[in-house]
Amino acid sequence: MAKNYIVADVGGTHIRVACFPIQSQKPTIVKRIPTKGQDSPHLRLINLIGSMNSSVDEIAAITVAVPGPCDPYEGIIYKAPNIPSWVNLPLKKMIQEQFNVPVAIGNDANLAALGEWRYGAGIGHHYLIYITVSTGIGAGVIINDQLLLGVRGLAAELGHITVLPDGPLCSCGKQGHLEAVTSGPAIAHWVEQKLGQGASSSLTMDKPLTAKDVSAAACQGDKLAREALARAGTYLGIAIMDFLHIFNPSLVIIGGGVSRSGESLFEPMRTAMSDHALSKKYLEDVVITTCALGDEVGLMGGLALAQSLDTLSPCQ
Amino acid sequence: MAKNYIVADVGGTHIRVACFPIQSQKPTIVKRIPTKGQDSPHLRLINLIGSMNSSVDEIAAITVAVPGPCDPYEGIIYKAPNIPSWVNLPLKKMIQEQFNVPVAIGNDANLAALGEWRYGAGIGHHYLIYITVSTGIGAGVIINDQLLLGVRGLAAELGHITVLPDGPLCSCGKQGHLEAVTSGPAIAHWVEQKLGQGASSSLTMDKPLTAKDVSAAACQGDKLAREALARAGTYLGIAIMDFLHIFNPSLVIIGGGVSRSGESLFEPMRTAMSDHALSKKYLEDVVITTCALGDEVGLMGGLALAQSLDTLSPCQ
User: Which residues of chain A does B158 touch, with a Cβ-Cβ cutoff of 8 Å?
Assistant: First the structure.
């Protein structure tokens, strides 16, 4: 019988589940449903996995990328900001009881790092940092070919390092974290504040701004929009330089919507990196790049996790 | 014939070399000489190792803790701030050619982390951070029972993360690094600046101040001295919270002279950690402690490195 991995990628909006034959990187089936519906999201997920089950011969393992911090050892989701009912949810156990096969879960940004390392921009690198700058900032780190997890699986929260001790409030409620300065909403909020103070710009407060609006205005040469992206890029650069001092990786992969702002963001980022580098050596050996796997990164990370289960603990 | 490890700890002032029987944690011989003399420091080191050689039956391996960034894979010292002639010095090769046994070198703070993990405060922990706050700030990180090295061995430079983007100049020439705010000289310099601005204190500018003077004055209730340590402690706390978000360790070991300032430093440090924590979970599972091995930490780290050589690559 042909063996398959079932890989799920759960977002705040959609759940996707794919079936990969164990020797393949191409899914034979991919199904997608909205995360929210009549049943609770974890029942919807389990039902969707079940609907795959009936179409494949045998399941070798099931993995799930979850949108929030989790304990990958115990398989418990601590909290998923976009799925309010998922607090301390023992998802691994729930799925295992249903299907009786090896199950593993991982934070989506952590698994994205694993996916890029195994199948994407990070192939061949032993030390890499993946950082996605979007509504929030997610990250994952590969050290010596292993995903950095920490004692409770809470490591690699690179978006929550403090870059401006007295800076703006972060989504987590604390002050001055990178996410509070460089995420999409943070960039839009900074522009709105400046407009409120009477700054002149092609941007207006007629409707709530997004980082995409700011990025588009910057492309058109809007000075305030450029300043906003330069500020975000500068703090991103300071933070990335911190990560280079901390991890000395050979690759930094930057993803997420904000990273599509281009040179308005990246040029000040590179300047800040150079301005804060302890030594040129940190910059000589590192490549800064964008992600290669696009929307597939969650599924490919889940596939890499499933394969590592097979290799590392076949009896799990 | 009895086999021995020869372990050297090179500082800016002294070179110490110890001989450990391979099954023992107690050296049978320890010799110490000044680092500087008629010969160049690496010749003095090699001669001292040679003088051990004649007194022991057989050398299983030689390790050296070096006072600066180095490439532990190639065994090259990039730069030793206190030994100006050590720039791109291929120390491993030099020692290997002389004694024809396995040789490994490591940054002293990295090896201190390894020593504390194997023999000191970190026994039983799988993820720990060691940070020593003194004239500079050195650090080492254990992840999943392995020393964090990075692609060129330059990782774990925790003292050079930026905590105050527009802050004071660091010893490395860049602005606002943790070392520029929390090291001993940085604390003393801040007090001197305040005295220069007319701040009242029991401390005076009659002679150059040290962090030890500031610490003593703080113990006596001096307000300016307490403020200086509170400032240093606050930024140390912000940085340590960054490291908890990044590594999610179960242990943080703080060493170095500045850490002897006690609660004047640690109370504001803990407050800052709590103020910047993404979630209480990061603080629930972590113990903050002081180092256990004192002045022996370099030699014990070198011993742990020698033992890992034996285990990991017996044919090296």
Answer: 245-246
